[in-house]
Amino acid sequence: MMSKTFAFGKPALIVAAALLALAGCASKPDKYYTLASPVAAADAAPSTLDSPAPLYIELAPVSVPERFARPQMVVRQPGGSVQVEVLEQHRWASSFENELRDALSGNISARLGALDVTKGGRQTSQPVWRVAVQLQQFDAVDGGRVDASFSWTLRRSDEARTVVCQLNVGEAVGGGMDAVAQGAQRVTAAAAAAMARSVSAARANPASTACVNG
Length: 214
Hints:
alpha/beta; five-stranded mixed β-sheet
């Protein structure tokens, strides 16, 4: 059997080294973050499911600006720059709008002692509070702040009225994406707390149609 010998010149070796370097970069693991955070025991309400008037909530898909509709974290450059950076190596655990919806619904449910029936789980005869959230702003600056602006509407399924609410919230953050993600968690938790308060207020005052800053 004839053996074959292959000789590689310097250009081929350079190309091979470059390919190995690219493979090493591609294999670098991404960091994944979540917006969900546990609700402190002092802020959590007992479940209403065994009460005569159980509370059900339903959170519509969260509307977000198109630039955030991705799993990658998006940060703004400091100093009021118009530039943003999409971070391939730092991602949310799911697409941002889904991560935000899950975090809000879990936090609101815990604070109200409610059952989230977004994906089903209630009889049609049982009224449900429907929450529709729009994220208008979500600016994150590494070593700076995370500032967000939310608006939302509330409507009980067996009522005609719609309650309109809004909230501006911000958190100072340290340097690094871990700190930015933690700031985003705190902002999300603050928004969920405001939304939970607005549901409680709407339940207590059947005539209300607006709330300011949650």
